[in-house]
């Protein structure tokens, strides 16, 4: 896949969409959805003691119960 | 067999859970190699569960009913691939909230269903593990991204299915496969355990052969969860029958295939007359901006959500393993969320989303339901993947509901050129939507083609 070409196409689409959205500059906006009445209750969820071992099974490389990853590889 | 009758037979013991599961597993074994609806079939687990249910005394709301689960919803021990090579070896480490609720009510998870890779698609063709075939119109796409779930229900592999809907990914395939599908209001169903496409728009929802099954599954999966603080505390009420329904010239103008709009309008007029619904015409000023508002939000949120797929803790680095459309959204999202573009794309899109939401809020003070097509065209032929721009435009009727955070559902409406067409309803409240879907379901003799 040609990453540069895909990136350019994505930017082109976004720029075209931006032109169409231009007409709504005067309207207010909000970031996200606020639910002030819905705070998470502390302690309401249960701890899953087996989760750690299940997650480690998915890791590409483990040693002594730790995930091993090459620095800066990602 | 319709869902209500099937459930009755299972609860009374006329049909054992084991027998029911065996029949469906046999059908999957025979037909899934062709249809490719399931990516993974949990044969042993399903039979063990069926046996437990047959021996037990408690009969939950979903007793013995089987389910397909879209491959982006976590089921412990099952492969949660999102139909991508990125996660092809990843096993679910916990159950999503919706899965816990299904199991608690006696539902049986049959396996993981196919989808467009990372839910980035509208056709069901872009899975890394092959396309899903539309069992009702085999030369046409089944729709996406919950393609496998829709096809599985349509062909009878499972009784019900779960999908996810960010811009139409439950409703689009429900329409193309001739079944019922629903996108709940944002916050109605916990997203805990869903691998997100766009966290401010995603909702998990039901797919079913009929409106009874859809309402039943919704009733089980909906509700407040401390694992997803965005979930609503208000209880889901019993179905309320709507009294008013609207059509809109704004949506008529967006429908490229006029045969679809004529079919939809004909059915709305017939049901309005039969059920004594007051018919209203409403216009919308900003709904034509929905596609242009949606994709900057999705690109940005998807880029953010995929940073965890770096190949360190699990899977592969997504940029090295994904398809072109997934990469397009990641790279596009990276560009437009850079500091130099702050305010230009994402915030402008949020403004448009807010305008659309306000319009629908006003509309649902006047009417109970809004009717429209599900897609502007019939599903395209398999293999004829449209350009990204054309694919994006395909979501014009489904996206507004996600941007507004409201609920929307699809019921089969009829056939055009032997291809199923779904009628889509929007509502301000989930129980009103379900009431409306039930009304249309009764009138339209809601059976699978």
* Unreliable residue runs of chain B: none
In terms of DSSP E residues, the strand content of chain A is: 5-15%
Mean pLDDT of chain A: 80
CATH superfamily of the largest domain in chain B: Amidase signature (AS) domain
Describe this structure in words.
The complex is a heterodimer of chains A (74) and B (449). The longest helix of chain A is centred in the N-terminal third of the chain and has 19 residues, at 3-21. In chain A, 36% of the residues lie in helices and 5% in strands. Chain A contains two helices and two strands. Chain A has a domain at 1-28. The model of chain A has no long low-confidence stretch (mean pLDDT 80). Chain A is mainly alpha-helical and 74 residues long. Chain B starts with a helix and ends in a 6-residue tail after the last helix. Helix content of chain B is 40%, strand content 14%. In chain B, helix 10 packs across helix 12. Chain B is an alpha/beta fold. Classes of the chains: A mainly alpha (74), B alpha/beta (449). At the A-B interface, helix 1 and helix 2 of A face helix 10, helix 12, helix 13 and helix 14 of B.
Task: Name a few traits of the molecule.
heterodimer; A: 74 residues; mainly alpha; two-stranded antiparallel ribbon; 36% helix; B: 449 residues; alpha/beta; Amidase signature (AS) enzymes; 2 domains; 11-stranded mixed β-sheet
Blueprint of the fold:
The complex is a heterodimer of chains A (74) and B (449).
Chain A: H1 3-21, H2 51-58, E1 62-63, E2 66-67
Antiparallel strand pairs in A: 1-2
Chain B: H1 3-12, H2 17-35, E1 38-41, H3 43-55, E2 66-70, H4 97-104, E3 108-113, H5 147-155, E4 160-165, H6 171-177, E5 180-183, E6 203-208, H7 211-221, E7 244-247, H8 249-254, H9 258-274, E8 278-281, H10 290-305, H11 318-321, H12 324-336, H13 346-366, E9 369-373, H14 388-393, H15 399-404, E10 407-416, E11 419-427, H16 430-443
Parallel strand pairs in B: 2-3, 2-4, 7-8, 7-9
Antiparallel strand pairs in B: 1-3, 4-6, 5-6, 5-10, 9-11, 10-11
Helix pairs in contact in B: 2-3, 7-16, 10-12, 10-13
């Amino acid at each position: 896949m040609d990453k540069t070409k895909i990136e350019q196409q994505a930017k082109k689409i976004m720029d075209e969409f931006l032109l169409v959205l231009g007409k709504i500059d005067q309207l207010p906006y909000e970031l996200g959805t606020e639910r002030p009445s819905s705070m998470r209750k502390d302690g309401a969820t249960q701890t899953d003691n087996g989760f750690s071992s299940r997650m480690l099974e998915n890791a590409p490389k483990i040693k002594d119960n730790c995930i091993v990853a090459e620095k800066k590889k990602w | 067999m319709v869902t209500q009758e099937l459930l009755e037979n299972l609860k009374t013991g006329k049909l054992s859970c084991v027998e029911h599961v065996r029949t469906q597993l046999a059908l999957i074994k025979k037909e899934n190699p062709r249809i490719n609806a399931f990516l993974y079939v949990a044969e042993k687990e399903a039979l063990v569960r069926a046996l437990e249910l047959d021996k037990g005394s408690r009969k939950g709301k979903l007793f013995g009913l089987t389910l397909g689960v879209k491959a982006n919803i976590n089921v412990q021990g099952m492969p949660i691939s999102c139909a991508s090579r990125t996660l092809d070896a990843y096993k679910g480490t916990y159950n999503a909230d919706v899965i816990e609720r299904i199991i608690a009510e006696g539902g049986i998870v049959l396996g993981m269903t196919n989808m467009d890779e990372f839910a980035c698609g509208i056709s069901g063709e872009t899975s890394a593990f092959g396309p899903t075939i539309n069992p009702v119109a085999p030369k046409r796409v089944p729709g996406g991204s919950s393609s496998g779930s829709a096809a599985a229900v349509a062909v009878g592999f499972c009784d019900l299915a779960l999908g996810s809907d960010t811009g139409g990914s439950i409703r689009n395939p429900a329409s193309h496969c001739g079944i019922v599908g629903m996108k709940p209001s944002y916050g109605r169903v916990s997203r805990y355990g869903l691998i997100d496409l766009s966290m401010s728009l995603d909702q998990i929802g039901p797919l079913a052969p009929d409106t009874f099954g859809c309402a039943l599954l919704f009733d089980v999966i909906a509700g407040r969860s401390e694992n997803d603080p965005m979930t609503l505390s208000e209880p889901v009420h019993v179905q309320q029958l709507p009294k008013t329904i609207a059509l809109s010239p704004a949506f008529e103008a967006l429908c490229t295939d006029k045969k679809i709009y004529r079919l939809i309008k004909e059915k709305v007029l017939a049901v309005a007359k039969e059920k004594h619904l007051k018919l209203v015409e409403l216009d919308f000023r900003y709904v034509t901006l929905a596609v242009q508002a949606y994709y900057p939000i999705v690109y940005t949120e998807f880029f953010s959500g995929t940073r965890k797929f770096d190949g360190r803790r699990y899977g592969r680095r997504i940029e090295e393993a994904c398809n072109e459309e997934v990469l397009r959204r990641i790279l596009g999202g990276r560009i437009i969320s850079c500091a130099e573009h702050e305010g230009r794309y994402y915030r402008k899109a949020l403004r448009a989303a807010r305008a659309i939401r306000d319009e629908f809020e006003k509309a649902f003070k006047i009417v109970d339901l809004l009717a429209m097509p599900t897609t502007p065209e019939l599903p395209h032929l398999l293999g004829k993947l449209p350009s990204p721009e054309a694919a994006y435009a395909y979501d014009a009727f489904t996206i507004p509901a996600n941007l507004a955070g409201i609920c929307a559902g699809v019921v089969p409406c009829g056939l055009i050129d032997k291809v199923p067409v779904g009628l889509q309803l929007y509502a301000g409240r989930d129980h009103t939507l379900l009431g409306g879907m039930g009304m249309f379901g009764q009138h339209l003799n809601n059976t699978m083609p």
